[in-house]
From TrEMBL:
Protein name: DUF2007 domain-containing protein
Keyword Membrane listed: yes
Renumbered residue ranges of the record's region Disordered: 73-120
Key words of the record: Membrane, Transmembrane, Transmembrane helix
Originating organism: Anatilimnocola aggregata
Entries under InterPro entries matching the protein: DUF2007, N-reg_PII-like_a/b
Cytoplasm among keywords: no
Transmembrane segments: 126-148, 169-191
Amino acid sequence: MLGRLVTLETYMNAMQAHLAKNQLEEAGIRCVLADEVMVSMYWHLSNAMGGIKLQVAEEDLERAAGVLDALEQKRRDGDADDDQSAASERQAQAADDEPLAESKVGDPDDEEEPRLNEREQNVERAYRATLVGFMLLPVQFYATWLLLSVWQADDPIRPALRRKLRWAIALNIPLVLLATVVVLVVMRFHLDEMVG
């Protein structure tokens, strides 16, 4: 038996949680993942549920934290080595391709896009929710709520996101109308049963 469980770490995706769990199990520490299925199924509620919780027995907490700290340090050291080797490769490449480097200075593809404002983030969410809504009809109502919040906001929207907004609206309206008709028919059927 694991004894009293305490949360060691929380994760927003199942892959990271399983990697950490595997590391602990390799070190001989028994652990469990709480809320993994809920976060995987209802990803849009993962923040509300607090993510996937990696839990260990209270007596193994310090040892488990040490294992995860060592793993994180090893990852950081590996990233630093990769960054150094990548930087030296870039410097060598830049020395070999000096004329190419000059021609790419003004290349718009290399520029980072500015951060999305709240309205544009809602456009992205509405677009994704509309596409998922084809499989899960209740998500379609979430997409409708997002589209209404986009409509009420005053922030500007970039042209590429305007195209996604048009698609989200075009796909959302028929599905919401269909869902509304289905709900009304079901309500009418139940009302007729209750009366008759």
